[in-house]
Predict the 3D structure of the following.
Amino acid sequence: MTYKRHVDRLPIPPKDAKVHNVVCHYCIVGCGYHALSWDVNKQGGTSAAQNAFGVDLGKQQDADAAGWFSPSMYNIVKQDGRDVHLVVMPDKACEVNSGLGSIRGSRIAELSHSAATGTQGQRLTAPLVYRYSGLVPTSWDDAFDLVAEVTRRVVEEQGEDGLIVSAFDHGGAGGGYENTWATGKLYFESMKVKNIRIHNRPAYNSEVHATRDMGVGELNNCYEDAELSDTIFAVGTNALETQTNYFLNHWVPNLRGTSAAKKKQQMADEPHEPARIVIVDPRRTVTVTACEIEAGKDRVLHLALNPGTDLVLFNALMTEIAAEGWVDRDFIQAHTAGYDEMLAANKVSIDEAVGITGLSADQIRKAAAWIAEPKAGKRRRTMFAYEKGLIWGNDNYRTNGALVNVALATGNVGRAGGGCVRMGGHQEGYVRPSDAHVGRPAAYVDQLIIAGKGGVHHIWACDHFKTTLNADQFRQAYKKRTDLVKYAMAAVPYGDREATIKAIMDAIRQGGLFSVDVDIVPTKISECAHVVLPAATSGEMNLTSMNGERRMRLTERYMDPPGQAKPDCLIVAGLAQALEKSWRAAGKPEIADKFKGYDWKSDEDAFMDGYHLHADGGEFVTYDRLRAMGTNGFQEPATAFQDGKIIGTKRLFADGKFKGKDGMAKFMATPWRGLQAEGKQAEKEKFPFLINNGRANHVWQSVYLDQYNEFVMDRFPLPFLEMHPDDMAGLGVGAGDLVEIYNDNGSTQAMVYPTPSAKPKQTFMLFAFPTGVQGNVVSKGVNEFIIPNYKQTWAAIRKITSAPEVTRHMSFKSQQQTVA
Amino acid sequence: MKSCDRLVDAGRRSFLSGSATAALGGVAAATLPARPAAGTEPLARVTYPANRIGNVKDLKVDQPIDITYPDKESPGVLIKLGVKVEGGVGPDGDIVAFSTLCPHKGYPLRYVAEDKTLNCPAHYSRFDCELGGQEIWGHATQNLPKFHLSIDAKGDIHAEAVDELIYGRLSNVLRA
């Protein structure tokens, strides 16, 4: 039976409840929330004078009420050592979400650690070390000392290349400016670590190298531009599920036509209609359906192209737009370089594009017209938005460049209703010392680990076993190498530090790897770790980040971290100090001195050392000023502090000055070269099913919190595999049946979700799920800058068992409404 | 031992009544507010009314009837699904009732007979009426509140309780 909480009443926040600013730490949109907290033994009342909302709670409230919160928005947590009631609810005054809460963000409270209610009991509460055949609690000093002693010895023997690092580089949970600065300072300033990888990906690189190389930073517009555009051109982004409230609060008004007044007011000299939208996605997503509901089918163009052929489409659009004379010649002349060369190199006829993409000539011509055909003599305003369908798809670099070409040629960067932007996953939060020493292409770190290189591995909030490519082989190699060290550690008494370190180093010399994992919860990879360090997350520390329109806010600390957990930046400080001590004791004071400068006592100290001193405009930004700016914050970069407010930047490149040579944006030659990553074409020919993959609305990221949330696990106990009913008949499988997905890279499992709108032989699997890792079947093939291609994966499928018990209560009805 | 027993007994009474002050009983009665009148003590759960919301003979398959429960401010639907479901009542075990305020933002849900779902016109959420209101897709962080039903000898259908918090109220029964 479907999970029900049987909650029929919730405590009422009293008038004097504390209110903290919160930005949802899950996705890049960064919706504004408020955390209300009050003493566990107090409560407000239903009359307006007795509660924090100032409304009569004895009455039924209307839709979009500011005074209602759901059971998932409530918990009992520790605050300064005392039990308090906590409500984390959307903030109506935040311009990003205007009071909307997603199925993820509206569970911030329920996904908090609570000893009282038992939520997130999985959280790490103490440093753990491997001894006596398991991970057991120890002190911070003991853990830091062990990590520093082993790390220093590995660096002495192998150089800094012997230290392999996996680290976040983003904002939000498991990141933020404080923590990204701290890890950057340790590995790029105190050391010059080259063998470092980011988050899910196997190298230290940008997923949007091309747009940056063209002088066009990838987050260059504001969310309001989606309300102002004539056309939205969306590529490989399922915005309704993955940037939910950006879509609902800024795209939908334009599709419905309710942003008309705003358009007229800001752009008075041109005609306006509700937006049209072009969606480039091989799959019919809920986003496509929602757009059709809002705008009508005649204003939605879904280009369900052959997977991985986006580049050809963009080059064909560029060719067509140029042939029609719809380019912005003045803009090209004044602000760009290399247009003619690009146009010649990328020329693709409509016929060629039809053959490769599988689209019709009419569809391609219509898309070109919707992007660039002038409206009553005025330039059409088109916003280009792309995400993992492009970024994690075929030929990342050139495809990204091909799209930016179209945006630049039509003058759609730096102007109202325009922009050429990635939609993003996490929030951002990157300020670090120079990473120039890492080089380009950066080292393919996963392959180094598989090949037995390196001796010690520091992991910061990454779970490779769930999120990397080639995950099956990576996990096998990793387990083997870390087991070598475990066997060695188990053979000596832990209390004999000298003997323990000798055993570890001997094992490393025989191919072992010493693994140190910093995270908020036990992960799949931490099962292999020898030291696990407990971190705090957003709300348990002060944390700053920026969203997809560069909107920077401070999430205030409103509760205590569990047990001894602490902010990553302070873990960095402790580790740096232990390394300084170790190098000094080893008689290397010149190296020890490099680890000075970590005498931070708080998250704010790390912020001031990092963002305030090093970010563009950072000198105008402090915690106090951010606190006063609330959930609206400001848009980076800051340019001044005036009248008590930080002054930001609504759009980048509004002055026409780009980041290329002489302030110009640079076009890029991006000719088509088929399935670019090594082995992909052969895999396509050998295996029958496309295993496309991505996210689901219900879950955040790699499910690290949701895996212990009854509401979510009741809905999706296993990763789903969307499959056309004809394919199901061919395989002899029914709804909820467990299938194996396998190819030459590895194997994994999923449950079948019947999906009539899926194309035959094109399945779609939930990514990064703990009970079935899609990455197991993704090949090691990458692009020239070591960017994975998860999306173009082919495999065979076979039945494992009929619907297991956990799937039998599940609804397998269509996740999409019917368009009238 | 005797005083201990009394304390245990007092504690039990306190737990059952939901009133911490009751535990102190006569000891400090002079300095404490008067106890609530019998039958009005606050309880751990809200007390639901049992309301007649329809009769079996009025129902036709897939033709939902608008109802309200637990009070007139809380709209819902009474549906005969035509398929026996867990928690369904009536001779065919196929009668169910749900709140129709979407637990995301409170917009009114619409019944789609083709697949027996309740759908939100505002933000595209969908709930499965055959599976207790399971959210098939959507933004709500709870499955749809279902009204528990019983049927008497005359075929009258009564709603008696709710299994999730209804949108727009912090107590399912207002002014409880």
Summary: Chain B touches chain A through 51 residues (CB under 8 Å).
